[in-house]
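Holo model, flavin-adenine dinucleotide. Inputs:
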Amino acid sequence: MRILVYIDIANGKIKKATHEVISYGADLAAATGDSLIGVAIGSCQDKLEELGSYGLTEVIHLGKEIEQNAPTEVNAWAISALASEMKAKTLLFSHSLSGKLLAPLTAARLKAGIVTGVVSQPELNNGFCVKKSVFSGKAFAKIAIKTELRVLTISPNSYPVKQVSGNAAVSTKAFTAAQSRIRTIKAEKTSGALSLTEAEVVVSAGRGLKGPENWGMVEELAGELNAALACTRPVADAHWRPHHEHVGQTGVAIAPNLYVAIGISGAIQHLAGVNRSKVIVVINKDPEAPFFKAADYGIVGDAFEVIPQLTAALKKVKAS
Ligand SMILES: Cc1cc2nc3c(=O)[nH]c(=O)nc-3n(C[C@H](O)[C@H](O)[C@H](O)COP(=O)(O)OP(=O)(O)OC[C@H]3O[C@@H](n4cnc5c(N)ncnc54)[C@H](O)[C@@H]3O)c2cc1C
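Output:
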């Protein structure tokens, strides 16, 4: 039996969430006795062989035949065709933007059971039962997959990356893409800004900042931390910040190593999109703000005093 891992590539770079999914797949393969194979699509500047250091021994590269920016359904067809050919029983994706799009399309094509946002290894003693978080991270559900084929998306920051020694063997494979029923007319990318979902550090601000004219100090702090910018929904709704920066239940879900929340109350809908961050720092003038309960570090204080001091301290540390 085989386990297929989708190697998530964006702009020629392997996304860091892929390393977690490979580690997850390697542990699953060790438990089931299956072999683990990676599937990559499109051109990649990073060395696919180096994925061996996360436990992948084989990578099939569909790079030459289909374009990375092909419509998602074309990539899903390629992955499902490969899965059928390889007789793969389990397909693993990251719960990233592309994984969330690809996994259901692939599962539908393979008539496979799918569970998204998985947070731990499956229980295998009585079938195949996986755990996922539900109700915006307030509870967990255990779901048994009864189908022969299964597709899982793994929640970012839920599985430790394990490094081993060795290289993966990379081979290319021909795939003739069928004509897609979807045509991209125009793709507009935001320029300059760090990708919110990929950033290691995110600096986010809410209504406590009072107005868009005060974002300069937030941008300066983000610059010192090499961080992406985020905001709460009311901030985006009021057009203080662009909608693509809105994080939470109805916005982008992120899982950076460090999340700095400034003037944000910590409503459950906001937490739903950021509670997978490794370390959360909250800056709020109200000591009773609910966000402090989810924080690893908290500063009770006025953002207009704290942020410039924090930025100045960072500059001083960097200069020394
Ligand atoms: C169905 C639904 C979905 C939603 N989805 C989302 C979502 O995806 N993302 C999201 O963010 N929200 C979402 N919301 C809205 C959410 O419920 C909250 O209303 C919102 O997150 C609050 O935003 P905020 O923290 O910026 O503002 P507020 O709740 O107004 O909080 C502002 C905070 O700033 C602090 N503050 C004020 N002045 C200062 C100062 N000078 N220095 C420091 N701190 C200060 C205050 O103490 C307060 O805690 C959703 C709501 C619903 C009903």
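The CA atoms of residues 254 and 274 lie 5 Å apart. DSSP finds seven helices and 16 strands in the chain.
Archived with the compound record.
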